[in-house]
């Protein structure tokens, strides 16, 4: 007996599932091979990882660096080999759940794994879904690890995950700079978008999903059950995710020189943006709500913040979303931000989070923090990431691992929650640390690194691979965050650094290949 993705009740039967999993299989079928030491080409030693991956520099937070490297080491144990029976690619990243692959897990795993793209099969993990795509464009949310078959057929209302594969491809491109892959996958992304538009829109043009399909199984965004199709219900997360899908496809088309397709999907995006803001934004409450039978349903879930990442909100809307809700300790900004459900909701579970009834999750935290930065709210993203990583580390210190989700009101694992979840919880230890705490944002196509220098301790990164370049950036300790830094910069190839400080000061400098010392305020640039 198999369970669908992330059902909190069936998850409690994990012992039974484990026993069933250990029963002998028919000789005609074989499980994906979890490769043992010696047979796993991805089972790198710590020394090999440290030689090849970005090395964060945090003189006053060595404990976070320990957790960073441990996350990478856990990932090495979660590489599976495809089989003739499942038809998957040779090697791919396992979501660390039950041996099956899931679309939105894979996209969010790529957000940290792309920093190790020379070591790990990141885009190959995307390719599993393209391999299994139907001729009509349908891509299932879940494929069975044993047979490679979709867990649900295309006519099942639970059959698709958030349609964010295009966003994953775009974000990977920001680090790789390789547009040739975009040309290959663009037609498949367009077909998937079209299938979703055809099969997941309501009569008002907004989108629906189910609890299971959305990935937020027991979230009260649904009103009946987590596997039920509910006629007349528009989902704010699904609608915003499809808008993000359109925006990402437009950007991809532009990057590969298809101006006509870029314009078409920019129009799709603009239409959805207008529709979502007209129908789903509550002027009274200052938040986006789902809709049931034409009326807004005042339920506040973490799904209400997908419009940040999709850049649907205007400045006034963003201000209200943040001040009244996201940073409100009576709603989402709990001891461990961000709760997946507002604390005032009657379904909210303070002690464990009960999965999506308050639990804190890597994918939605990553989504929120990236969305904040798109609106210039770097301070809010930074402070939330500090608190987030501190809570995750306290649990890591006590349990020795990373968990599927966390409790919102204490430094504890959630319940239910799986351990060793790298898996998408690698974002807590890796991408959040690099992007939100240290403050790096890479634009490989433009040969540019944006560095929002948040910390005053000696900090930075060495051995950062982007495009064909390898760069190291280290800022010496400062007294105050607004003080100009003294930087050591090393690059294999020329690149541009855009440096910003809390308070608004910005500096831009292009570096040739070599090693340099730079003090922005004095415009001093020395060959080191």
TrEMBL record:
- Which Pfam families does its entry note? MGH1-like_GH
User: Per its UniProt record, what SUPFAM superfamilies does this chain match?
Assistant: Six-hairpin glycosidases (SSF48208)
Q: Which biological processes are named by the entry's GO terms?
A: oligosaccharide metabolic process; protein N-linked glycosylation
Superkingdom, according to UniProt? Bacteria
Any idea where the Mannosylglycerate hydrolase MGH1-like glycoside hydrolase domain is?
104-412
Task: Extract the coiled-coil ranges from the record.
Answer: none
Which keywords does this chain's UniProt record carry? Answer: Glycosidase, Hydrolase
Query: Which molecular function terms from Gene Ontology are attached?
Result: Glc3Man9GlcNAc2 oligosaccharide glucosidase activity
State if Hydrolase is listed as a keyword: yes
- State the family it belongs to: Belongs to the glycosyl hydrolase 63 family.
What name has this protein been given in UniProt? Glycoside hydrolase family 37
- Species of origin: Ktedonobacter racemifer DSM 44963
